[in-house]
DNA sequence: CGCTTGACACTATTAGAGATTTTGTCTAGT
DNA sequence: ACTAGACAAAATCTCTAATAGTGTCAAGCG
């Protein structure tokens, strides 16, 4: 398989996945028809099957793509803020809140929401459950790099706070993403920077 | 209506509610039959209707009782720890985690979980939504009393942390209630006690 | 009175048969 | 490498009849 064919195929996969994403957003996973996906992607139904194998497999590929994109986004945001952990956290949290707000699918994955329109998740043992673990690990590594002077236990505490508070604010938002991110970063800074009292 | 009749009636209501609680736990709200409730409570079906009016009304009464009991429990736990906020928070969180663990109904209310076996909540505008708000307010008042030297903003931050982290750990537990409560109290202490850096 | 019992209409839930879609595969054609 | 059409098998919808449950009434009992 040549390089060229590979890139063609990749763009084809992406077109199909894009179509699927839009249709799932409109009608939910249950209302998704392979025929519609094919049509919207400008491709034959058969091609979808040869490329993905089955509707379920297409679903898996879809959430895997979304998850990977999200994780890449987080990585990018974090890397873009060098050693300023506070700024990194603020930006990362805001990015996550915004993503969850306008990507129903990722919101469902992040909050581990079952049932509802996201019947999609019903059978996704793959890279969807470990999402939060991966994000936590990434944030932990970033924290270790950006705040080497903080002891490990405090860093752990802080990272757990970021993740849990962020998810909490996705499920039950009270303010804008900016304001919330700012607030969470503030909390987390305190958790990390205060040595154990008493 | 005499005092005596009142207490008789109250105990009758309680017996019926107890029966309903057990049956809901077994079969879910959807699987609950008024006839079974009456039978288990040792009461006629008609009595249930004269007392509560309808199945839905009985459901409301049930969750209201559970919510009130929970709130009373929190109040008691908090009051039992005088001015030691840290101890109070630890005990309160542990109480909440334990309650959620063995009271499916309250767990559903606390986490605002919709659908599932708790189809009960589908139509409860009453004292179920404000639960977290009430608990938050109680904790806030308690904090103001136990930690007067901490500025209000820091207290707000800390209270929000307790509530959100507790709910988060109900939804996704990683350790025992004791360990988790201890951890949350530690985090919250840091949030409250650290003056704003930079 | 306060409760039980049995009877009742009305409504919601369930079960099954049949029609209709959709999935997933195959084959021939471009 | 993809499209197009045809197809069996499986899933989903639809409608009907039967069943079960809710909510109300009136009669009876201590």
From TrEMBL, chains A, B:
Keyword Metal-binding: no
A Pfam family recorded for this sequence: TetR_N
InterPro entries: AlkX_C (IPR040611), Homeodomain-like_sf (IPR009057), HTH-type_TetR-like_transc_reg (IPR050109), HTH_TetR (IPR001647)
SUPFAM superfamilies associated with the record: Homeodomain-like
Matching Gene3D superfamilies: Tetracycline Repressor, domain 2
DNA-binding in keyword set: yes
Xref: PANTHER family: HTH-TYPE TRANSCRIPTIONAL DUAL REGULATOR CECR (PTHR30055:SF146), HTH-TYPE TRANSCRIPTIONAL REGULATOR RUTR (PTHR30055)
Protein name, UniProt field: TetR family transcriptional regulator
Organism: Catenulispora pinistramenti
Taxonomic placement: Bacteria, Bacillati, Actinomycetota, Actinomycetes, Catenulisporales
